[in-house]
Amino acid sequence: MNVTGLHRGLEEKFDLFCSATTFESILACFYELCDGVVSKPTKQSWNIFHELSVNLKSYWKAAALFSKLEKRVKMKQYHHQTLCRDINVLVIGCGPCGMRCAIELALLGARVIIIEKRHTFSRFFVPQTYSGFFQAPCTLLSTLTMAN
Questions:
Q1: Going by C-beta distance under 8 Å and a sequence separation of 6 or more, which residues neighbour residue 59?
Q2: Per the database record, which ranges form the FAD-binding domain (predicted)?
Q3: In a shared domain, residues 107 and 66
Q4: Which of 2, 14, 57, 90 is deepest in the core (most CB within 10 A)?
């Protein structure tokens, strides 16, 4: 397969990944995309991110996404993904807040596992807020994290 054919295949795999709506199809598309790009297995997710961005930089859809992600990753607040390097985090629920929390923690260098009961993803979320409910647990959590 020539280079043009390889990139066309990666572009199609990227489009399938972006349009997937079920958890199983998202994972399958991601693994298929990585199989075509990632040269060797790695535990560092940033290596996968780098290889995907390098191989898909000529595809306009991927380039737009990766430029936003790279800009975010390079922010000084993330300390080159070393601040939470030795922390394992379990995020329960992958709604807008759970997903944002997981992404931010990963950007800080934490190893994040997400548990979600839904099998499909959509853009329709109904956030529920409870006044005062999160204030005490979040304060306690940040205190415990800083103490360790």
A1: 7, 10, 11, 14
A2: 87-123
A3: no
A4: 14
